[in-house]
Structure formats: structure tokens, C-alpha cells
Amino acid sequence: MKIEGNILKHHLKNVLFVCGNACAGKTTMARMLAQKHGFHLYAFDDDEWWERHRAIADDEHQPHTCYHGRDFHEQWMRPIEEQARWSIQSLREQNEMAVVDLIVLSENQTVVADILFSRDFTKDMLDDRQIVFLTVDKAMIRGSYFNRPEKRGFYEFVKKQELADTYFENIFQSLELANELEQRMMRESGFLMLERTAETTSEETLAKMERHFGI
């Protein structure tokens, strides 16, 4: 079954999408927007939602999601190109489940969705003023990826591995390649894209988002 874009657009009309790639600041900005305006926050990568999505996923329909975590060594010793493609495809699978969550959550309230990039978000599905893509230059990834609280557990786990340096290098290189691919697709989407720099403040980005969303 394929659900047409106009149907999704109707049921997602109360959702403001703050999307982007790793280290772009989308989680911070989505939280600030929701708190300031009293909106409900949907954080895609919260452990609670991840566990729900993982429980639904199966090898046939969500193979990339199910691959995650099977064998850490195998996963992070794959070629960088394969790793980056896996990252993008697994997010695409999980975003399908997130859309269903958002339809239910937003029926009677405005929801701010903190979601990683997906090229499946199109103008048939969302109005221009419902979504913003946040991105960052790939040079900033290494210095900030593991500084986020939700990544500290992963960092400590990798650090204890015998091949920790190799794993870290592969992780960073795959993130950097995924960043390049995602930025290209963001530009092609036609939706607003805001790039985080070392000089950008959260307050400046929030103001731009508010103007874009019309709030």
C-alpha cells in the first residue's frame, strides 16, 4: 500500500519538522522551539521510541534497522561507502515508523518533530513552512559528535574495544560521507536549509526557524 502525499499532508498538518544530519543542532533547536511555545516534543532517537521501532522492525521490511547492533565489529569494519548508505537507509526505514507516531500524536496538538534527515519528505507530503533542514560542515563532526549526552554511552563502549582507534576513524569517516550525501539531497529537496557554523548561536537559529514556521 502506498499512501498518497495529500493524505499524509492532511494528517501531518499540526507537525513542525526539525530535520537534519548528525551534529547540526536539531535536537537542541527542536527542544528550544517546543519549550518556548508549549508544543509537544517528539524526539525520534529517544530510547523509548527506538525500542518501540526496533520491536516492530523485521528483516524483510526493515533490513537496515535490523542489521544495527548484530555484530559491532562487522558493522564498523565495513567499507565507508557501505556504512554511509546503511546509515541513510536505516533512518529512512525508521522515519516511516516515526510518521505514524506523529499522525497519532498531532491529532489535537502541535508537535515539534526532532528527526534525522530523510529524502522522503517532499512537497507533496509537507508544506514548505512545515519543515526545516539543519546541517553542519563535516569538519565540525569529529569535535562534537561524542560530546552529546546521548552519545556518551556509545563512546565509552567503543573506547573499551581492542580496535577502538580503527572503529572511531571508521565511524567519523562514514558520518562525514553521509553528511555530504545528505547535504546534496537537502538542497535538491527545495526545503529551507540552515547551516550551523562555529559562530552560529542557538538564539539566531531559533529566530530564523520561528520566522520560517510563522510563529
Word description of this protein:
With 215 residues, the chain is an alpha/beta fold. Helices cover 53% and strands 13% of the residues. It has helices at 5-11, 26-37, 47-56, 63-67, 72-76, 80-105, 141-144, 152-159, 164-189, 202-213, and strands at residues 15-20, 40-43, 111-116, 131-136, 192-196. A five-stranded parallel sheet has the order 2-3-1-4-5, sandwiched between helices. Helix 2 (26-37) crosses helix 10. It is globular, with a radius of gyration of 17 Å. The mean pLDDT is 90.
Question: What's the topology here?
Answer:
Elements: H1 5-11, E1 15-20, H2 26-37, E2 40-43, H3 47-56, H4 63-67, H5 72-76, H6 80-105, E3 111-116, E4 131-136, H7 141-144, H8 152-159, H9 164-189, E5 192-196, H10 202-213
Parallel strand pairs: 1-3, 1-4, 2-3, 4-5
Condensed summary:
This protein is an alpha/beta fold and 215 residues long.
The radius of gyration computed from the alpha-carbon positions, rounded to a whole number of angstroms, is 17 Å
Helix content: 40-55%
- Overall spatial form: globular
Q: Helix tally?
A: 10
Content of β-strand: 5-15%
- Overall pLDDT metric: 90
SSE-based structural type: alpha/beta
Distance between the termini: 35 Å
Order of helices and strands: HEHEHHHHEEHHHEH
Low-confidence stretches: none
The biggest sheet amounts to: 5 strands, parallel
In total, the number of strands is 5
Strand order in the sheet with the most strands: 2-3-1-4-5
Key traits:
single chain; 215 residues; alpha/beta; five-stranded parallel sheet; 10 helices; 53% helix
